[in-house]
Amino acid sequence: MEEKIAIIYAHRKRDVERIRLSFESLKKQSSKNFEVIFVDYGSNAPLTEDLKKLMGEYDFVSPFFLPVPQLLWNKSKALNYGVLQSKASYIFIADVDLIFPPKAIERLEQLKKPESFFLFKMGYLDQDTSSNLMELQGFDDLKASRVGEVNGMVLAPRGAFLKVNGFDEFFHFYGAEDVDLFSRFETAGYREEKTEGLYFFHNWHRSFQGSEDEIVTRNPRIKNIMRINQEHYFRNKDLGLIKPRRQEGMGEVIGVERSSRLKEPTCNYIIPNIAARVEHFLEEELLTLKEEVIKAEFVIDPYYETLKYRLKKKLGKQTQPYLSMKEVNDLVLKKILFNYRDANYSFKIAKDLKSIDFRIEL
Questions:
Q1: Region 109-116 average pLDDT
Q2: Closest by Cα among 75, 195, 92 to 147
Q3: Rg, C-alpha atoms of the chain
Q4: CA 234 centroid distance within chain
Q5: Is 179:116 a contact under the CB 8 Å cutoff?
Q6: 229-257: per-residue pLDDT in tens?
């Protein structure tokens, strides 16, 4: 096993220039004793084509493009997949927003210990500095607008990841997958060590947190997901888990051949946004189906958009409870998260935001 450091990136639908800047900062490292494992988890063309061209410009990058646009964003699974692709002795979990000062890898090499994992402070760049990063090129005189203590960057032996079965793949979207990993590292006997000084900087972007909690968009998101993830982390910590429950392996991805089965459903349902219809399908009907490929299309009931319905609702006279498409979205996504996250499924919101196509192989 090589003593180099493997830098793991997990990516989905971010801009190419942001990734280029991170790679450019690595290109200028004083130590070349590293490799990059870049895992794209389900970005669509033409972005993937642009990314492939970019990866060809850097000989230290090994890219892996996982064709899973039908699945929900799962950073944990993408990172686990990346860990398994490297034979390096040490793993550093990166982010596409990271900028590495020229001696960052050299400093990481000095830290490596087989019994420890290292956490880092992060220097956050302001918008003006970030917009001029390509012109700076040297990346050696950056000034942070603020310093953060909590982030997902960690350096650890590869064996530590394998011992704890990697990141817990329950965690979807964003939040708590990093602190959960660190907690299980400690439970498994690895010592947490925090570093002084700034090893990395964060390229500015607008905050995504909470931006899609309240409305339905084409980018799937569950309301309150960060607190759900936090609750899962607390449960794992309270139980003193080393390996995640209900996760036999790590980084196992649905292949193209298997996912293609979803194109030919054996059972078709059209479900209006009537609360009872949606809830009964998700909580009862799905449980009765075996060895089937299900297509469920959740649609807006015509009556829901009528003036008569709106007037009755305003007067408190409606007798049939309805769900908004955001509420339908959240119920289906929670069903996937809690019950079917490892299944062969697809989830797609229509362009007009008025229907949801959910498919699953049972």
A1: 95
A2: 195
A3: 23
A4: 19
A5: no
A6: 999 999 999 999 999 999 989 999 999 99
Provide the total of helices (H) and of strands (E) in the chain, helices listed first: 13, 13
Q: For residues 145 and 124, what is the distance between their CA atoms, to the nearest angstrom?
A: 6
Single-letter amino acid code for the residue at 148? G
In order, the DSSP letters of 130-152 are: HHTHHHH-S-SS---SEEES--S
Q: How far apart are CA 233 and CA 241, in angstroms?
A: 10
Pairing of strands 146-148, 116-124: antiparallel
What per-residue confidence (pLDDT) applies to 151?
80
Q: Which residue has the tokens 């410009």?
A: 57
Q: CA–CA separation, 222 vs 213, rounded Å?
A: 6
Please report where in the chains the tokens 């210990």 appear, as a residue. Answer: 113
pTM metric for this prediction: 0.92
How many other CB atoms sit within 10 Å of the CB of residue 326? 17
d(C-alpha 122, C-alpha 94), whole Å: 12
What's the angle, vertex CA 5, arms to CA 32 and CA 116, rounded to 5?
A: 140
